[in-house]
Amino acid sequence: MAYRVDARGLSCPQPVVMTKKALDSCGDVQVLVDNATAMENVSRFARHSGCDVDVEASSEAGEDGEGCDCYIIRIHAKGRA
């Protein structure tokens, strides 16, 4: 099961820092971001780190139950479980 990082509402570089910490401890990470800049930065970081990256645009319910447009970034570190 992938470790989930909820970085919605955070500006860069925070989503990248959170992703790096998660990748340091887990081979599979799922990152939620709510803007294209964060999506591009997290994806770029993961690819430069040698990971496989898959991005999906989605509408997920936030903590308040309201839907929000967001990106789900699935990251798999090659050679790790």
Describe the structure.
It is a single chain. The chain has 81 residues and is of the alpha+beta class. The chain has one domain: Translation Initiation Factor IF3 (2-Layer Sandwich), CATH 3.30.110. The protein is 31% helix and 40% strand. It contains two helices and four strands. The protein has a four-stranded mixed sheet, covered by helices on one side. Strand 1 (3-6), helix 1 and strand 2 form a beta-alpha-beta unit. Helix 1 (14-25) packs parallel to helix 2 (36-48). The mean pLDDT is 89.
Please tag this protein with its features.
alpha+beta, 4-stranded mixed beta sheet, single chain, 2 helices
Identify the CATH architecture: 2-Layer Sandwich
- β content, as a range? 35-45%
Shape: globular
Domain tally: 1
- What is the share of helical residues? 25-40%
Global structural class:
alpha+beta
CATH class: Alpha Beta
**Strand line-up in the sheet with most strands:** 1-2-4-3
**Would you list the SSEs in sequence order as H and E?**
EHEHEE
- Count the E strands: 4
Main sheet makeup: 4 strands, mixed
CATH H-level superfamily: TusA-like domain
Which fold does the CATH topology refer to?
Translation Initiation Factor IF3
Instruction: List low-pLDDT spans.
Output: none
Mean pLDDT: 89
The end-to-end distance, rounded to whole angstroms, is 10 Å
